[in-house]
Amino acid sequence: MPSSPLSISEDLTIYHALALKDKLLAALAETSELELNLSHVEAIDTAGLQLLVLLKKEARRSGKCVRIVAHSQAVSSLVEFCNMAAEFGDPLVIPAAHAAPR
């Protein structure tokens, strides 16, 4: 059973990728099911996307599970733009507070 989701508030960009890689891989090592809350991520680039792909692949390789349980608009937009939703296999969930107004 997963603990509470790991909330990431840093930007998932090349400037933070190395530190976040260590943080995320360490969190994965401590559990069999890692849930990520990305609803506070304001910016993501391809380095951040690669980091999420790496985390998912590392989890699969080691028989573990990584789920993204909340997405910011930035994360959702990049995942959709890069046509990666199927790769992640998680529903694209954007908290109501972050959803675009109609």
How would you portray this structure in words?
The longest helix has 16 residues, at 46-61. By secondary structure, the protein is of the alpha/beta class. The chain has a single domain, classed as Transcription Regulator spoIIAA (2-Layer Sandwich), CATH 3.30.750. A 3-stranded parallel β-sheet has the order 1-2-3. α1 (17-29) packs parallel to α2. The chain is globular. It has helices at 17-29, 46-61, 73-81, 85-88, and strands spanning 6-7, 33-38, 65-71.
Number of strands: 3
Class derived from helix and strand content: alpha/beta
CATH class equals Alpha Beta
Spatial order of the strands forming the largest sheet: 1-2-3
Percentage of residues in DSSP E strands: 5-15%
Mind summarizing the main beta sheet? 3 strands, parallel
Estimate the global geometry from the Cα principal axes. globular
Number of domains: 1
Q: What radius of gyration results from the CA coordinates?
A: 13 Å
Task: State the low-pLDDT regions, or none.
Answer: none
